[in-house]
Amino acid sequence: MLRTWDIQESISFYTDVLGFDCASYSEEWGWASLKREEVEIMLAVPNQHEESTSAVFSGSLYIKTNDVDGLWKQLKEKVQVCYALESFEYGMREFAIYDNNGYMLQFGQEIPD
After folding, report:
1. How far is 24 from 26, CA to CA, in rounded Å?
2. Which CATH number fits domain 57-113: 3.40.50.360, 3.40.640.10, 3.40.50.300, 3.10.180.10?
3. pLDDT at position 88
4. 56: buried, middle or exposed (CB in 10 Å: 19+, 13-18, 0-12)?
5. Could you give the CA distance from residue 61 to residue 83 in angstroms, rounded to a whole number?
6. Which uninterrupted H or E stretch holds 8?
């Protein structure tokens, strides 16, 4: 579950830019579920128990794909890039971007032997 301070903007980023579908949304709860193929991401606005006003998640979301090169070509001009498409010695070809809230999203594909 990713916190967002503008849920409509986040839904638009994930649907319009990344190609997710909004599977469920509740304005009353400040919550949405987004899906693309086998990946599901939930978004929520901070509740009254939270004091943070910005993204505080220090890790990244790693999403495996079967076409990392195609996804890179599709996204590279539309998003803020963290690092460009690259093949790594640990056997993955991947890139990373930031979503509209500043969360890092990594997309990777195993390099065939």
Report:
1. 7
2. 3.10.180.10
3. 96
4. exposed
5. 14
6. helix 7-12
Task: Report how far residue 73's alpha carbon sits from residue 77's, in angstroms, rounded to the nearest whole number.
Answer: 8
pTM for the model stands at 0.85
**Backbone region of residue 102 per phi and psi (left: phi > 0; alpha: psi in -120 to 50; beta: other values):** left
pLDDT digits (tens, 9 = 90+) for 54-95: 666 778 899 999 999 999 999 999 999 999 999 999 999 999
Copy the structure tokens of residue 3: 């916190």
Across the chain, what does the average pLDDT equal?
Answer: 92
Please check whether residue 83 is in contact with residue 70, taking contact to mean a CB–CB distance below 8 angstroms: no
Fold of 1-47: 2,3-Dihydroxybiphenyl 1,2-Dioxygenase; domain 1 (3.10.180)
Nearest to 97 by CA among 68, 67, 89: 68
Phi then psi dihedrals of residue 73, to 5 deg: -60, -40
